[in-house]
């Protein structure tokens, strides 16, 4: 590896008199990530607050009020956090000694990969199967797939495997969108997708590879007469507020864990820039954020602002904090009995049932996607010990966590 370009690096004396190196770091994201890119930046800023000294370069749209500072093959600096790149860019960056962390599952052909920090696509698929099967009771599942995208391939393979193992019938809707030039791409997506959607059994749970594909599915439901969620319950990934809230009906989505991704990517990049070793093919997979249900999977806005705030608080609670009903009542500012009545009227469940449902869903995901012991998971999920965890799990599922993990992992 050529020596790192240090022309942009500076050593500055901190308040304690210790020399600290300043690095010039570029951030480049795709235009379609802007709806959730703020989460990535929040994670990067979290890392900067640990005491490192970075100058961040990001070519943000400003209506031409600011000069453009493109982060491309001609960019000069110490490190890059990028969402996809070309083989030509990779060659130039390597020749300049620029350290790079890639946030995408995509790697150009005939190009050695940079270290990557990506979403755990197996965990995403497991969450989707669980939502369709356990929350909605659906046994026919489908996946909107682009075979030319690695992330879509990873999600489809895991979704099919988990779905079939759970006893579901799994169908494929294949739409190779990126094969078509931009000027005809939208027409080709519609032409290829709508006959496949019409052939799906009804009712069916459709898991789209991302929010953009799910938006297409919802538009085609309206034009083809399919009812959503009655005929087709649609779920996607990223939880981009623009797509999810402007779709009709509003779109259920699994949240991209941008803050964690940003922090881990920044930490990894700093390690690289300071000469610490990392394998070129290193890939860190980050567990997804919560599944946010909306009308597209039949879980509409409850129509009660207080209940909506309570549901948001349950989903946002950290796994290591065993949220109690009194805690929840205090958060939303209402009595226990009032919250129980209003939640049952709005969504048909009690606060305790909703807390347990979210806790169980997260625990199921952790059991299958990680090798942690029951004792470690009990500590992480704030149970008093593995015995209490097992009692909780069996009370809600009828089986033990060990058996649940063994049955699903045996097919992985």
CATH topology descriptor of the largest domain: Rossmann fold
Q: What is the terminal-to-terminal distance?
A: 37 Å
Q: How many domains make up the 3D coordinates?
A: 3
N-to-C series of helices and strands: EEHEEHEEHEHEHEHEHEHEEHHHHHHH
Q: Which CATH class of the largest domain?
A: Alpha Beta
CATH superfamily of the largest domain: Response regulator
Number of helices: 15
Average pLDDT figure: 87
How many beta-strand segments? 13
The outline comes out as globular
Q: What fraction of the residues are assigned to beta strands by DSSP?
A: 15-25%
* Main sheet: strand order: 8-7-9-10-11-13
Q: Please give the share of residues in helix.
A: 40-55%
Give me the Rg, rounded. 23 Å
Output the structural class.
alpha/beta
Oligomer: single chain
List segments where confidence is low: pLDDT < 50 over at least 5 consecutive residues: 1-7
Largest sheet: 6 strands, mixed
Per CATH, the architecture of the largest domain is 3-Layer(aba) Sandwich
Describe this protein's structure.
The protein is an alpha/beta fold. It folds into three domains: 10-118 and 259-286, Rossmann fold, CATH 3.40.50.2300; 121-255, Rossmann fold (3-Layer(aba) Sandwich), CATH 3.40.50.2300; 301-409, Arc Repressor Mutant, subunit A, CATH 1.10.10. Helix content is 46%, strand content 16%. The protein is built from 15 helices and 13 strands. The strands form three sheets. The protein has a six-stranded mixed beta sheet with strand order 8-7-9-10-11-13, sandwiched between helices. Strands 1, 2, 3, 4 and 5 form a five-stranded mixed beta sheet that branches. A two-stranded parallel sheet has the order 6-12. Helix 2 links the parallel strand 4 (79-82) and strand 5. The longest helix has 19 residues, at 351-369.
